[in-house]
Design brief:
This protein has about 325 residues and is of the alpha/beta class. The protein folds into two domains: about 5-100 and about 285-325, no CATH class; about 105-285, Rossmann fold. Helices cover about 25% and strands about 25% of the residues. The chain has a six-stranded mixed β-sheet, with helices on both faces. Strands 4-3-13-15 form a four-stranded antiparallel β-sheet, with no helix packed on it. The protein has a three-stranded antiparallel β-sheet with strand order 1-12-5, with no helix packed on it. Helix 5 (about 215-220) links the parallel strand 9 and strand 10 (about 225-230). Helix 2 (about 120-130) packs antiparallel against helix 3 (about 160-165), helix 2 packs parallel to helix 7 and helix 4 (about 175-185) packs parallel to helix 5 (about 215-220). The radius of gyration is 19 Å and the shape is globular.
């Protein structure tokens, strides 16, 4: 049995729920400070750029959700009646509910900065393990970053090509994490699959980006991309060597949470390949929940989403991860 078959067969008897949020991609664009090396071929769009309607054009909102039990295990097998969906506080009727292992478009954002130098080999192994769990219809691109962000490979299903390109990169330089995320979100505009995700492998610090934290928050908020991260952190006693590295873990957590993804913190680098497989399982075992908003106005305003899970009798309280909202279409 090959690695892909193993990964697909590794359903932790717990359950995975994922609803794909079909939202529109829009671009923020405030630049801060002196100009630093720009992200090539991805200039900032004008501030008034309109989102590109995806699912909202047919008046359906699809929401990505992951459900975990108290032991951090994936929860699968729930039914439509176990969910409640709300928009701006109003309960919505769930009109679409399915479980499908659909193809995914994934961008891997790989930290090659100097702060990762002693963790780089294991981090590469984690990325390679993640690629090996791909389904044949999946597609990937690869961005690496140190003092600047670079698209190492555009979308491809050739896993061997991705692994080869990753192997010949070397760590060094500063950390342009925000630029790398921005480049990844921009690259997602060329995705062929409706499900989209970014996987960041990094210690989370940023000290050399053209784009600001606020730029990234706004761009991610307007996208239909889930963000997952493997946080390769230093032991607590050694972690806070710079303010950027100190803020790294919290930053990754906030970005992942707002997109409906998760962060998997790792202090023992030998755990990296197993964590990569776990994230792959979470992405590939999904439920899709859809509703037609009762508020049909095209006002361009932020619409807050809430998803509750009513567990079957006998189950403990469950934790839910999902994207927190979307922008309505403009008039």
């Amino acid at each position: 049995m090959d690695h892909r078959a193993k990964a697909r067969g590794m359903r932790v008897s717990p359950w995975v729920l994922c609803f794909a949020l079909g939202l529109a991609l829009g671009l923020p664009a405030q630049q801060r400070g002196p100009m630093k090396p720009p992200v090539p071929a991805h200039p900032k769009p004008p501030a008034n750029a309109l989102p590109n309607p995806v699912v909202r054009s047919v008046h359906m909102v699809l929401v990505p959700v992951t459900v975990l039990d108290p032991y951090d295990r994936l929860v699968t097998g729930l039914q439509r009646d176990n969910f409640r969906a709300y928009e701006n506080g109003e309960e919505e009727e769930i009109v679409h509910f399915a479980e499908d292992d659909v193809p995914i478009s994934i961008g891997v954002i790989f930290d090659m900065s100097g702060s990762m130098s002693d963790k780089i080999d294991k981090s590469k192994m984690a990325a390679m393990q993640f690629f090996k769990t791909a389904n044949p219809q999946d597609e990937f691109f690869l961005v690496d970053f140190s003092s600047r962000a670079d698209l190492i490979s555009p979308f491809t299903s050739d896993i061997n090509e991705l692994q080869s390109r990753l192997m010949y990169t070397k760590a060094g330089g500063e950390t342009a994490l925000f630029d790398a995320i921005y480049l990844g979100l921009s690259e997602m505009k060329g995705a062929h699959n409706s499900r989209k995700a970014l996987l960041i492998i990094s210690d989370g610090g940023d000290n050399h980006s053209r784009y600001s934290e606020q730029d990234i928050r706004e761009y991610l908020r307007e996208s239909d991309v889930q963000l997952y991260a493997i946080g390769v952190y230093e032991p607590l006693a050694d972690r806070f060597r710079t303010p950027e590295e100190g803020a790294g873990p919290e930053l990754l957590e906030e970005l992942a949470d707002m997109s409906g993804g998760r962060v998997f913190p790792v202090q023992n680098i030998n755990e990296l390949p197993d964590i990569a497989t776990k994230i792959s399982m979470e992405l590939r075992n999904q439920y899709v929940l859809g509703y037609k908003p009762s508020d049909t106005k095209n006002d361009g305003k932020w619409r807050k989403i809430k998803v509750d899970v009513v567990p079957p009798r006998g189950l403990p309280p469950l934790r839910v991860y999902y994207k927190h909202g979307y922008y309505g279409l403009k008039p």
